[in-house]
Amino acid sequence: MSSSSDFQINAGRGVVLRRLNGADLAAFQAYRRDPEVGKYQDWSRMDDAEALGFLNHMAEVDLFQRGRWSQIGIALNGGLIGDMGVLLDADAPEAEVGVTLAASAQRKGLGEVAVRALFSYLFDDLGLERIIAGADLENARSIALMERLGMEKTGAANGDVDYVLHRAN
To answer: Smallest Cα–Cα separation from 84: which of 95, 2, 150?
Structure first.
């Protein structure tokens, strides 16, 4: 799929999707350590050494490989404001997507700009047919985002709600 070391998508409004790298450490840790940002997330906090290793790994690994998570950065005017995880299914033409956005970047439409650009890339460039995402039932902002993106609710269980978006014909 994409193994390019210069992966970058200009999403608009100053938002750029790009590889994470070691220079993102301070911003990455600032929002990942924010209890409000992490409230509904499944990831675990990392100490600085772990986070730096993770960021450096994401800077070099082949992105968008089937059966493996890829983590990409969301930057605004050059500074990291969040990240997105993308898991391409090992067999089916689909991906699971998750988003983390710094509190200072929320409620400004930046997450929607970033996710729309990612969805376009996944459908148009990678040829996927379906994108899935989920959220905690109490995470009203994430649920509202998925609905604004045109995703359809497919079910709810164990405190989570699941959504899907199919490629437009």
So the answer is: 95
**Residue count (the chain):** 169
Average pLDDT, 10 consecutive residues per value, the chain (169 residues): 71 98 98 95 94 98 97 97 98 97 97 98 97 96 96 96 92
For residues 98 and 96, give the distance between their C-alpha atoms in angstroms, rounded to a whole number: 7
Select 8-166's CATH number: 1.10.10.10, 3.40.630.30, 3.30.200.20, 3.40.50.720: 3.40.630.30
CA distances to 39, 50, 72, 97, 98 from 42, rounded to whole Å, are 9, 17, 17, 13, 10
User: Any idea where the domains of the chain sit in the sequence?
Assistant: 8-166
Find out whether 110 and 127 touch, Cβ atoms under 8 Å: no
**Which residues, at least 6 apart from 26, have a Cβ–Cβ distance to it below 8 Å?**
none
